[in-house]
Design brief:
Elements: E1 8-12, H1 17-28, E2 32-37, H2 40-50, E3 53-56, H3 62-76, E4 81-84, E5 95-97, E6 104-106, H4 109-134, E7 146-151, H5 155-158, H6 164-184, E8 189-196, H7 202-210, H8 212-220, H9 231-243, E9 251-254
Parallel strand pairs: 1-2, 1-4, 2-3, 4-7, 7-8, 8-9
Antiparallel strand pairs: 5-6
Helix pairs in contact: 1-9, 3-4, 4-6, 7-8
């Protein structure tokens, strides 16, 4: 798929971190971009800066997501590219010590369900709505109509203590890729996922000032290069997957060769 001004894209979580880097890279390639994000202030500011369309979207709400796609398509046409970076998840151990009672407590089913909605259900929701719109497009070379790129995590394979929800549900995202790609193969829509390791996004960058020793330890935990990933490196991979029409139903781990220990 040749990336140029004839194409439209939707990037969820596009107001910060990996999503923002992807928005910038797509705009540099000339692609029209709609930013889906819950944060209106930063979303509007970034959209104005890079020349994108901002749609305030809550990925936990079907109505909000549908309204976002409707607004994006009205502004810039049907998207051929979806990069889904947004996520909502709760941390917690399956069973842990309860400091208040001295006994034990478990991560609640409700907290797990919230994570399931924000990781796995949201990924299906957004990908399937995008695919439905792409299906009606005229095919490009090789019969391609669109590219869907989901964001998984290295934690899908190396889930740490306190990541029972996040790790298992990102593994579910991995498991979605092949059957969805097969569902959509006759429509010419590709489905892939990226599994980032530790990246220098706002949550991690907070440690740089708050706890420099911990931040340095995170850098040193990466085999090579000994640093956190740059959001631009994620975006570069996202664009290559989008460009290369022979990449389909694949999982790409980008992590400097790190393998997470239990904690």
């Amino acid at each position: 798929m040749k990336l140029d001004s004839s194409l439209s894209a939707v990037v969820t979580g596009g107001a910060s971190g990996l999503g923002l880097a992807t928005v910038r890279a797509l705009r540099e390639a000339g692609v029209k971009v709609a930013i889906f994000d819950i944060n209106e202030d930063s979303g509007q500011a970034i959209a104005a800066e890079v020349g994108a369309t901002f749609c305030q979207v809550d990925i936990m709400s079907e109505d909000s997501v549908l309204a976002g796609f409707e607004a994006a398509r009205a502004a810039q046409g049907q998207e051929r590219i979806l990069v889904h970076c947004a996520v909502v998840s709760k941390g917690g151990k399956t069973v842990s010590k309860d400091k208040e009672t001295g006994g034990f407590k478990r991560m609640s089913t409700q907290d797990y369900a919230i994570s399931a909605e924000g990781v796995l259900v949201a990924s299906y929701r957004i990908a399937s709505i995008a695919a439905l719109g792409m299906a009606a497009l005229d095919p490009l070379e090789d019969g391609e109509r669109g590219s869907i790129l989901l964001t998984s995590s290295a934690a899908a394979q190396d889930g740490q203590v306190g990541q029972v929800a996040y790790g298992s549900l990102k593994a579910g995202v991995n498991g979605m890729v092949l059957p969805m790609a097969r569902d959509l193969m006759e429509l010419g829509i590709r489905v892939n996922a990226i599994m980032p390791g530790i990246f220098a996004t706002p949550p991690m960058l907070r440690f740089k000032d708050m706890n420099p020793a911990m931040y340095e330890s995170l850098n040193n935990s990466v085999p090579f290069p000994k640093r956190l990933g740059k959001p631009e490196e994620f975006a570069g991979l996202a664009l290559e997957i989008t460009r290369n029409s022979y990449i389909n139903a694949q999982l790409f781990r980008i992590d400097g060769a790190i393998r997470f220990p239990p904690r």
